[in-house]
What does this fold into?
Amino acid sequence: MLPLRPTAVAGIFYPDAPTALARAVDDLLAEAPGSDAPAPKALIAPHAGYVYSGPTAAAAYARLAPGRDTIERVVLLGPSHRVPFRGLALTEAQGYASPLGPVAIDHAWADRLRALPYAGTLEDAHLPEHALEVHLPFLHRMLTRFTLVPVVCGQVSVAQMAAALAELWGGPETLIVVSSDLSHYLPYDQARALDDATAQTIEALDAEALGPREACGHIPVAGLLALARAHGGRLERLDLRSSGDTAGSRERVVGYGAWALAPLSLSPQPRP
It folds into this structure.
C-alpha cells in the first residue's frame, strides 16, 4: 500500500493554509442558494481554481447538507488532463492528502472496478491531476466523515463508463461526484451560447451528444447521463456561469456548471 497521494495544486487552485481554506470554502457555501430537497445521489461540479469556479462548486455542495451524517463514501470521478490513457485509473495510495486532513480511500469498494477489463492501477494519472483534488475541501466542510473512491477517467465508451458507475453506485451512504468544467477558452458570448446548449444536452440526458468541446469531463458525465436515462432519473441545474462572470477576462473564458441527481436506485446492470 502506497502512502498518501500528495496535493498537486494546494496553494495554487485553493489556499494551502487550513484556516484560510476552511474560511474560503465556508464563505462560498454561505453564498450558495439553499434548498429543501433531500441530499442528491450524484453531483456534477467544476474543478477550476476557486476564484473562478468556486461559486458554482458551492452551489452543488451546499445541497449535501441533508446528507451530512448519512453520506459515508464519495465516488469521485474526473478526466485526465495530463496523462492520456485508455480505461479507468485507480490508485493504491492509502488516501488523498488535503490541507484539511487526509481522506482515506475505500479500497474494498474501489476493487469492485477491478473485475472490469478496462480498469486498473495507474498512479501516474492520479499524481498530477487536479480534477479530483479540488473537491476534497468542499466535501470536508459538508460531510461529517467520509471515505473516498477516486477514479481518473481515460478513454472509455459511454456503456463502459455507465457500467463502472453502476458497480460503484451503492445506496444512500454513497455519493457520486463527477468533476467537469464546460467550454474552454472561447470569447464570453460564444462560451455562453455553447454552455447553454451543453446544459440543455445534460438535462435531456443525451449522453452521446457530449464531447470534449462541450466538457472536459464528458466521459464520466456521459456515463452518469446514460444511467440516469436508463433508470428514470433527472438532473437539476444548480448553476451555470463562466470565468468571465467571476474573476477572469471575457476574451477567453472557461465555462462551469453544477447539477444534482435526486436519489436513484439501480437495478443490476449487465457488464459490457
